[in-house]
Amino acid sequence: MKTSAISGWKSQEGYTITIDLNSSKPIYLQICDSVITQIAMGILTPGEKLPSSRRLSSALGINYHTVNRAYSQLIQEGYVTLDRRKRITINEIPEGKRSGFDPIWVERMKVILSEAVSKGFNSDMIMVKIQSILEDIESTKDE
Amino acid sequence: MSFLILLDTATLLPLIVVFAVMPYLSTPDLQFGIRVPYNFSKQPEFLHLRRQYTILVALLQAIVLTIYVVFFSRIPGLFETFMPILIVPIGFFGYFRARRKTLRLRGHYKQSEHSGGKIIAYMVRDPIRWAPIWFVLPWIELSVFIAIGVLYYPHIPNILATHYGAGGQPNRFSVKSYLTVFELLILVYLPSLILLEAFAMAVLRVLPNRNSRTPRKAGMQMRGFNKAMYQLFIIIACILGLSMFLDSAKEWGLLSGLPIIITTIPVIVIVPLVLLFTVRTGQTGWKLYPGAVEKPNEEQVVDDDQYWTGGLVYHNKEDESLLVPKRYGLGYTFNFGKRFVWILIGIVIATPLIVITLVIIHVL
Question: Is the pLDDT of residue B163 over 80?
Answer without folding.
Answer: no
